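Hi R.,

Here's the input for the WTA complex you asked about:
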Amino acid sequence: MAIIPARPGDHNLKDYARARETFRFEDVEREFSWYTTGRVNVVYEAVDRQVEERGMGQQVALYYESGERQEEYTFGRLQEESARFAAVLKKYGVQKGDRLGIFLPRSPELYISFLGAARLGVVVVPLFEAFMAEALRDRLGDSGAVGVVTTSELYPRLPLDQLPALKHIFVVGEDIPKGAVDWHREMSLVTETPPLEWVGREHPLFILYASGADGKARGLVHVHNIMVGLLITARWVHDLRPGDVYWCTADPGWITGIAYGFLAPWLLGVPVVVRGGRFNAEDWCATLARYRVSVWYSAPTAFRMLMSGGDELLARYDLNRLRHILSVGEPLTEEVMEWSLKKLGQPIYDTWWMSETGMNMICNYRCMPVKPGSIGLPLPGIHAAIVDDEGKELPPGKIGNLAIRSGWPAQFRAVWNDPARYQQYFQHRPWFISGDAAYRDEEGYYYFQGRVDGVINTSGERVGPAEVESRLEEHPAVARAGVAGKPDRLRGEIVKAFIELNPGYRWSEDLAAELRNFVKTGLAAHAAPREFEVKESIPLTRDGRVDRRVLREWILGLGGR
Ligand code: WTA
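And here is the predicted structure with WTA in place:
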């Protein structure tokens, strides 16, 4: 595919080469209120400041739509309601530094709860709404959450008897279970709201659980300082400016839905669209058109869904306002890029980053030519490299570990309860080793080549093989399980499980369905294996862990045992 020329004109990052030489993150720090006042809280910068310093209290911050519900929240209303929720938390004794799980579907209550907690310096533990009992137990348990916000529908999934630290359960909905707190009623009872708490730049903002190659999901600790990375990427990568309407389609249970779903755009006072519930290709178009979305951040899986809707669908909607489209999470294929050029009249800008990085790291920018197939160039201020397994830098053209020089502003600061895991990422200082393989060309463009560590990426969702294995091994039929990603045209990868059966069990389609459901109801639907294969034994390494190399060989058909 041909190189797509730079799009001069209305872009923020005017000269990549120059910015690359001269930009320092300190340059953007000056733009924050705390730079002069010394008082830090990301909620102040993203919400209160728009009201108190910029006269934007009446401006819409959030357009929400789900089924029958259609609501608008101004910055002023978000400030007011999140302060109310802070009052509710205070009433129940939830304090600065305490952890609060947020287990809600995309809804205004989710954003209000997040902001309300962060206002007080309470640390949010985002929980994707598809999580089931075991995934919830691991995350709420590990983080030691003292409270959780959920809905009456999701409430039954909480394994309360296994969560001794969990004292307060705030429930949004009609049927409030015994012992739980009625979120809406409490909000209506508030008469006085507490002042926003000032915290340090290094104070934890949220702990996001992300799957790794081994063990359980790890709690990545992000701090208020994440805002520095979010502000500059909102501008340079997403090209946000006054007058924009921004739609990031990711769920706030994942990093993209937090960092870019609301924090980054609100730092610039740009309104976001949130669409709840499930939706099809037609709903996508309708949403883009109805809210006159100008900047759209989504994933290849979503673009493919839109493609499957057919041309006549696109023709029925006025998408004229759409001026910038970005992608994340999985490889942006040529097929998708060609479709966008043809049908939407513009390229899609790929962005590479991870839960650990907290912000976009290697991206395509409007001011630079786009080489289809490349994830782009490092953000000015970010130093990337390809290194070998000893941490030595490799020259252009060589595939190796994609690494980032440690010390960027949105970097995760710890793995909760697990300093050893944190150190693993930095075993070749000064590099952060991403776990992705890539190479770089002579001009410095990077090309993603897949994960090196066995983490599975299915439709842009990160699945840890070890979590799925240990769930499968809880089933009486399974002696041992080995799980790996299998390449798939539509989903990037699918979850494939190799099963060693216990004596007395026979393989059948029914058992496969049962195991799939067992993972689905224990962990989450996206973690459930789409394919199974029975093996006499699962290969182990000398130290007794599943030998992922052999699983990969089995999948790719390179022989095996
Ligand atoms: C993958 C999502 C191809 C990668 C923000 C990374 C990508 C993992 C891209 C992180 C991209 C992210 N092209 N693959 N543009 N961006 N990935 O933590 O393997 O959910 O390591 O963060 O997604 O997934 P995570």
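One thing worth noting: Residues 75-91 form the longest helix (17 residues).

Cheers,
M.
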